[in-house]
Amino acid sequence: MSQNLNVGPTPKTIEGGCLCGALRYRADFPPDHDWADNSSTCQCTQCRKNLSSLFLACHRIKPASCFQWTTDTSTLKHYRASKLASRPFCIECGSTIGYFPAVEGYDYVCIAVGTVDALYLFGEGADGVVVPKEGFGRALVNGLGPNLWCKNEIKGVTDNIPLLNRSERLQEE
Question: Running along the chain, 173 residues long, what does each successive block of 10 average in pLDDT?
């Protein structure tokens, strides 16, 4: 287990979903979940194009059975940019939910942290009992886990973002 320092309060459960609300999920974290190691970012071209963003901030949930859809999945589709993984998304609003391994032996899912509900991410609507006022954003995306595909970083832009420089910067996937 890596360092779990400076990640703030940690949740037992989070919920999230797509922009239109057709797809909803819930993740239950085991007591020994490593918050630092399971927080990651990626700067690969596939993640950038898939999210229309400079990098993906994601959180790995393992085992995969800790993740479950809580709504009907009739609007769920999976895009396969490679043989390694699928990228689940909503066909109604286009929201990408994350990155799901498609290779046998990988028992986890990675959720795009931007799909986590505001209540859990930054405490919007928190009453202080269920969720702390500041939410769990720092636990979910803290920069202490791997930063993937840094060989694709954009000089003068993503190479100088503190979040992307806190931990191991992997040059390959």
Answer: 71 97 97 93 84 88 96 97 91 95 91 96 80 91 80 77 66 57
Report the distance separating Cα 35 and Cα 80, nearest Å: 27
Domain with 143 in it: what CATH number? 2.170.150.70
Q: Provide the whole-model pTM.
A: 0.88
Describe the strand order of the beta sheet including 56-61 as a list of residue ranges: 76-79, 85-90, 98-101, 109-112, 56-61, 39-42, 147-148
| Cα–Cα distance, 147 to 41 (Å, whole number) | 5
Which residue range forms the structural domain that includes residue 122?
13-163
Residues with Cβ within 8 Å of 26's Cβ and at least 6 positions away in sequence, in order, are 13, 14, 15, 67, 68, 70
Residue 169 resides in a domain: no
